[in-house]
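Researcher: I'd like a candidate sequence for this fold, 353 residues long. If you have to choose between options at a position, lean toward the conservative one.
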C-alpha cells in the first residue's frame, strides 16, 4: 500500500469519527506524522537539537578606555603612596606629628588607588548593586580623607609657625592624633551614605555625574570641598604673613636682609603657590561641574574633570613627602644603602613651608 492510500484511508476514518469540521486539522497532523515516519524509514535525522546542546554565544566585553586609564592611574597611585607609607613606618626618626599626617595622607591616597582598581573590577567582572555601593563609598571615604588630611597638614604648618615654642610639646602630638581620628570618622561617615540609602539605584533620574551618588549628595560634597579650599587658602595666607613678619624682624635686627633669608622667603612663597595652585587646578573643576551637571551631560566632561582630581593623589607624595629632606634621606638609604654625612648633621625643622 502506498503513502497516498494510507492518507485516504486515515482521512476517511477520521471524518467518520470526529466529523467534517476537523478535516483540515487532521490532514495537517497526518501529513506531519507520515512525513516524520518516512524520514525515519529513509534514515534522515530531523529531530530538533536539544537546547542544552547549544553553546551560548559569548557577548563581547567592550572596555571603556577612560575606565582602563583610571585603573592604571589607581595602580600607579597605590604603588607610589605605598612607598611613602613604608618609608615612614620603617624609619624611627620619622615620628613627628608632621610625618604622621603625611603618612595618613599617603594612606588615604593608597586607599583611593585601591578603590579605583576595585571600581574597575566591579564594573566589568562583578555585577552587584551592593558591591557597587560599597565601591562608591570607599572612593568617597578615600578622597574625603585625602582632602581633610591636606587641611590637617595646613593647620599643622600654621601652628608650627604661630606657636613655634610650644609646637614640640606633648599637646601637639595629642592634638594631631585626635585630629586624625576625627577626620577619618567624618570620611567614613561620608562614605557610608550610599550604602545607607543615599543613592540613585532606585531612581536613575536623581543620579549625579558620579553614579550611584545622587545629586543632593554630590552637591553637598562639592560645597564642602569649596569651603575646605577657602579655609586652606586663608591658612596659607596667614602662613605667608607670619613668614614675612619673621623675615622683617630678622632684617631689622641685622639691619639688612641677607641673601639666604631672601631666598628662603621666596622659596616658601613658591611652595605655597605650588600647593594651592595644584589643589585648585585638580579639584575645583570637578566640584563646580558636579554642581551644574547631571546624567544628561556628556560623559566625556565627567571624565575630563574627574581625572585631574584623581591625579592629585599622585601629585601629593611629590609635594608633601618627596620634597621633605628627612623622607628623601630615608628613600636614598632604602635605595642605595648609603647616607651622605651632610644629611646626618642637618637640623630637623617642624615644617617645610
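Model: Candidate sequence:
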Amino acid at each position: 500500500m502506498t503513502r497516498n492510500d494510507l492518507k485516504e484511508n486515515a482521512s476517511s476514518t477520521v471524518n467518520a469519527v470526529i466529523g467534517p469540521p476537523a478535516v483540515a486539522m487532521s490532514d495537517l497532523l497526518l501529513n506531519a506524522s507520515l512525513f516524520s515516519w518516512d524520514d525515519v524509514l529513509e534514515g534522515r535525522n530531523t529531530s530538533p537539537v536539544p537546547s542544552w546542546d547549544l553553546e551560548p554565544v559569548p557577548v563581547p566585553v567592550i572596555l571603556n578606555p577612560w575606565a582602563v586609564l583610571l585603573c592604571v592611574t589607581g595602580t600607579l597611585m597605590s604603588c607610589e603612596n605605598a612607598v611613602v607609607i613604608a618609608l615612614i613606618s620603617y624609619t624611627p626618626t620619622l615620628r613627628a606629628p608632621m610625618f604622621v599626617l603625611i603618612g595618613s595622607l599617603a594612606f588615604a591616597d593608597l586607599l583611593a588607588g585601591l578603590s579605583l582598581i576595585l571600581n574597575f573590577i566591579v564594573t566589568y567582572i562583578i555585577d552587584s548593586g551592593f558591591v557597587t555601593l560599597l565601591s562608591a563609598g570607599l572612593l568617597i571615604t578615600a578622597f574625603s580623607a585625602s582632602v581633610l588630611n591636606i587641611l590637617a597638614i595646613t593647620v599643622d604648618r600654621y601652628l608650627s609657625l604661630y606657636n613655634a615654642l610650644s609646637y614640640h610639646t606633648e599637646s601637639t602630638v595629642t592634638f594631631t592624633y585626635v585630629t586624625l581620628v576625627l577626620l577619618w570618622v567624618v570620611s567614613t561617615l561620608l562614605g557610608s551614605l550610599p550604602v545607607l540609602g543615599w543613592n540613585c539605584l532606585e531612581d536613575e533620574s536623581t543620579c549625579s555625574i558620579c553614579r550611584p551618588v545622587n545629586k543632593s549628595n554630590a552637591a553637598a560634597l562639592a560645597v564642602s570641598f569649596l569651603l575646605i579650599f577657602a579655609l586652606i587658602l586663608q591658612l596659607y595666607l596667614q602662613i605667608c604673613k607670619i613668614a614675612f613678619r619673621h623675615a622683617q624682624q630678622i632684617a631689622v635686627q641685622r639691619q639688612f636682609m641677607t641673601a639666604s633669608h631672601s631666598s628662603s622667603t621666596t622659596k616658601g612663597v613658591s611652595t605655597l603657590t605650588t600647593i594651592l595652585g595644584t589643589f585648585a587646578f585638580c579639584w575645583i573643576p570637578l566640584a563646580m561641574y558636579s554642581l551644574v551637571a547631571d546624567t544628561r551631560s556628556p560623559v566625556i566632561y565627567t571624565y575630563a574633570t574627574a581625572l585631574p582630581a584623581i591625579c592629585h593623589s599622585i601629585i601629593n607624595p611629590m609635594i608633601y613627602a618627596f620634597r621633605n629632606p628627612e623622607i628623601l634621606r630615608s628613600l636614598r638609604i632604602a635605595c642605595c644603602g648609603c647616607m651622605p654625612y651632610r644629611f646626618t648633621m642637618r637640623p630637623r625643622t617642624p615644617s617645610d613651608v
